[in-house]
Predict the structure.
Amino acid sequence: MSQVDWLSQLLQMINVTGRLEVRCNYGAPWRVAWDQSAPHEIPYHVILKGRAILEDPQSGTFRELVSGDILLLPHGSAHVLHDGSGHVPGLTHNRQGSSGWMLSENDSKGERLDMLCGRFSIGSPHDRIIRDYLPASLVVRSMDGEEGAMSASKDLANLVGLMRMESTGDKPGGNAMLNALSFALFTLVLRAASESEQSPAGLLALAGHPRLAPAISAMFADPARPWNLSELADLCSMSRATFMRHFRSSLGRSANDLLTDIRISLAANELKKLTMTTEAVADSVGYRSVAAFRRVFTDKMKMTPGEWRRQAREPA
């Protein structure tokens, strides 16, 4: 399987939705702070024009973002974006549009920033996979340079351009269009990151590893198969010990950890179906013993399969 195949399997499993919340149009000095997000939410920011400094209040680290940069925060960490001048920011004026997102502006006359801000929502238990297997922050570039010249991420550049147009004014169907484009943004950012020569840590780095990619693709393609480490190592043309060492150094977790998380996430989806018994669900994700499945599911989800089934079927 290709990297795109495993990514499709992941996205089909976790069911991501996205929405645009704010378009920021500021002159320097400016500053915006976000609190820690809910466990199932991933904030995102798209720098359409200008530059911004990303500040992590916990670590005290800074990173410059420029025109064309797309920032995802898979762990939902509290963060601050500002112009980097250190000056007192100007007052902002917020105006709610009929399409559901807000336009935020200020009266400052300094260097201009145009930025889209929103969030992705991922339901339980799939939010845990995102937190555990993606880095705390993820930045990809959709353009090169301040003038927005196309880079290798042509698809991302085109998508960002469409989001810019849809977020200008209150167009019929604009909110629905922007929400749909947000999901496409999530997909393309993960694809671009996994194909990068400098893939970030975690699952994306593992998928971009030319020797380890066959194992992750196989686990996503056929999670019910009783995989053992020797079989997975053979797929990667490695010894068992070498495979284990490279897998853990790339992902921070073992191959068995990833396979278990894939199985439990799929099982959580299957348990929502009225026609699926717990026994059938256990078998469909590779557990021949219902007792073993219940034990692993309860350990991961902190509730039994029956409790999850009842909770998942309750009206929102």
Summary: The longest helix spans residues 174-195. The radius of gyration is 21 Å. The chain has twelve helices and 13 strands. The domain at 3-197 is CATH 2.60.120.10 (Jelly Rolls).
